[in-house]
Structures are given as C-alpha cells and as structure tokens.
Design a protein that fits this description.
2 strands, 120 residues, little secondary structure, 2 helices
Amino acid sequence: MFEQGDGTKLNDEVIKKLCDKFGIKLSTEKAAVEIPVAPAVQRVFEVEKGYCPNPNCPSHIAYEVDGRKFLKPDRRLQDPVGGKFCAICGEVLEKRCPNCGSLVHDGAVCSICGESYIAI
C-alpha cells in the first residue's frame, strides 16, 4: 500500500518490523538537519481538443481575408469532450497542425507555420 501512495498503514510499529527484517538499525534520535518538504503542486490538465479536417463538415465557419477563403473549425461543437471523432460528421479529429505538427488553437490558421488547418 505504501508503494502505491497510501501511507496510512506506515506507523512506528510497521517501520520497526521492517527495520528488524532487513537488519537496519533504527535510531530514535532526531536528525540534526530537517529537510523542508515542498508543498504539493496541483496540476490542472486541459483536455486536448481536436478539430474536424473535413471541409464539408457543417460546423465550420467560412470567412474570407484578402480574397483568401478559410474555414474556422468550431471545436466546441466538433469535440466537446476531447474525443476521437467529430460529434457532427463522424470524421477522425486532428489534434495537430497538418503542416508543421504543432498543437492547434481556436483559430483557422496555425500560429507557428501560418498554414490553414483545413484545406479548401
């Protein structure tokens, strides 16, 4: 249990038995230097959401900039829970830029390489 992170069963009696078993001399004196323990760090994990690469998916938002057409994926509709398939059309979702492989963001164009996520 202790190896799995449950330290509730590790009391003085158990420690003494382990020391006796492995021939370790148990000292009852306090250590001269106490090592400070860092507080636990809470990590927040975000679900990596994907986008639908299907240009015919009805969830895409079409727009134009300087005569160039783009499709902005609506990732909230296509992948509300971080799944594998588009919730609208069933296409396998992409989680990285098809050109450079960087993580995608909520726009239509990769901020690293400048290429559109969805080919029109």
